[in-house]
Structure formats: C-alpha cells, structure tokens
Amino acid sequence: MRALVVSDIHGNLHALEAVLKVARSCSGPGFDELWNLGDVVGYGARPNEVIDTLRSTPASRVIHVRGNHDRVCCGLSSSQGFNPVAAQAANWTRQHLRPENLDWLRALPMGPVPAGDGVLCVHGSPLHEDQYIASMRDAWIPLQRMPVDIAFFGHTHLQGAFSCRAEFWSEDPPAYVHGSGSQVQHFTLPLPVGARYLINPGGVGQPRDGDWRAAFAIYDQTERQVTFFRTPYDVQAAQAAIREARLPERLAARLTTGR
Ligand SMILES: [Fe+2]
C-alpha cells in the first residue's frame, strides 16, 4: 500500500495539481490512498477548487484531518491569534467558499486520526492539533508519548522527519542533490522497525523551508519507507490568482522564496 501524504495546501490549486500529476506518475503504482493532514484552505485564492479536487481524487481510502486554518475559515474557531494577513485571508476564504464546501470543512475530524498498522495522521502533533513541531526539542515528548511508532504531521510547512530509538534521536531532512532546484526531486527514508518517527511531508501550497517547490510524500507501507518529493509548479499563476483576488501581496510574494 502506498499513501500520498499531503498537508498545508492552503488554497493553492496550481501546487496541488502539480503534486497529483507527479504522484500519479511515480515509478510503480503511484498511490493507493490519499492522506490529507489539514490546512486545505486559507492564504491561497482557489479554496473551492482545492476542496473539489481533493474530494474527486480517486483513492482506495481517503483520510482527512482538520487544520487550524480549516477551522477558522469555516467558522468553527475565531481568527484570534492569527496575524493580520492570515486573518484577512481567512475572512476572504469564508466569504468565497461555497456552502457545501463550508459544510465539508466543518465535518473534518480533529486529529489524531488512525491510519491503521501503527500509524497516525495529525495536523500539529499527536498530543495537540495546534502544537508546532519545528525542532527536535518540540518532537521529543510527542515521540515518547504517542501511542504508535509512526505519525504524519504538518502545520509547520517544513519537510522532514524526527526519529528516536531508545535514547538515540535524529533529525532527517530530505537530502536532495544540490543544483536541481527547478526539477522534480525525491529522497527516500527507510523506516526500520524498532524506532519511532514523526514525519512531515512539507507544505504543498506554501512551503516555508526556503524551497519554493511544492512538497509532498509517499508512504510505502509494504516497503516500510517514506519518499519525500519536491516539484516545481506554476508559481506565477498562483500569485496572479492571489493578486486578482486582492488578497495581501505578502501571500503572493512569499511563494517565490518559499519563506
Ligand atoms: Fe498551514
């Protein structure tokens, strides 16, 4: 079984379409299941189209987890605590979502959501849906306390993994080959039995690790490995949509830098 794992799409249809195209054409069977770790909307200018695409993507099983932007954009939470740009984008998104997509967002489950075979899907952390895991310092306690050996998480928009085996721990960012930043790249991380893993596929629609390419991962349950991917997409088109919608310029500009 291979699961396409996506997170933090944030209304960026152009990035999502590139991800699906690459994931479907991966060597081998592509993917069987689709796991979405949340923040489908907010920031980007195509929230309805992103939801429609996710809902119509063929997969033998689909897992969704709600993100904090999903909650705010559908009115389940207030935007208190959001910075002004995020709050403005959430308001715009709420005003532009079709009623059925607002309902779909409101029905998304809070993580952790079991994916079976000792795997969890969460937005922030296995311990709390809004917790940020951006460093080993953040990851250490969730790695100890989570009830499974593997959890996929998002929220930080930073691609990579944290792992521990007994008292040994490591951070495992994908080691892409330098100099190929405008191409599709992938990096496979084996997941040996006996260790615990927190794995972030990265942000599809608004990466924040300095790489502008859309990020995602394929989890291969049979081979017990995860492959991280980066793929170029039509950033200019995504930026034009944001500007046309009169969303804050910062949301368009940051897509170029991946920051
Ligand atoms: Fe996010």
Largest sheet strand order: 3-2-1-11-12-9
Share of residues in strands: 15-25%
The tally of beta strands, per DSSP, is 12
Structure class: alpha/beta
Give the N-to-C terminal Cα separation.
Answer: 33 Å
Domains, number: 1
Q: Please compute the radius of gyration using only Cα atoms.
A: 17 Å
If classified by CATH, what would the architecture be?
4-Layer Sandwich
User: CATH superfamily, called what?
Assistant: Metallo-dependent phosphatases
For the record, the CATH class is Alpha Beta
Let me know the largest β-sheet: 6 strands, mixed
Question: Runs with pLDDT <50, length 5+?
Answer: none
* CATH-derived topology: Purple Acid Phosphatase, chain A, domain 2
- Secondary structure tally, helices: 8
Shape call: globular
Bin the helical content. 25-40%
Q: Can you characterise this structure?
A:
With 259 residues, this protein is an alpha/beta fold. The chain has a single domain, classed as Purple Acid Phosphatase, chain A, domain 2. Helices cover 30% and strands 23% of the residues. It has helices at residues 13-24, 47-56, 68-73, 84-96, 99-106, 136-145, 235-244, 249-257; strands at residues 2-6, 33-36, 61-64, 113-116, 119-121, 150-152, 160-165, 168-172, 185-190, 196-200, 214-220, 225-231. The strands form 2 sheets. A 6-stranded mixed beta sheet has the order 3-2-1-11-12-9. It has a 6-stranded mixed beta sheet with strand order 4-5-6-10-7-8, with helices on one face. Strand 11 and strand 12 form a beta hairpin. Helix 7 (235-244) packs antiparallel against helix 8. The longest helix is centred in the middle third of the chain and has 13 residues, at 84-96. The protein starts with a strand and ends with a helix.
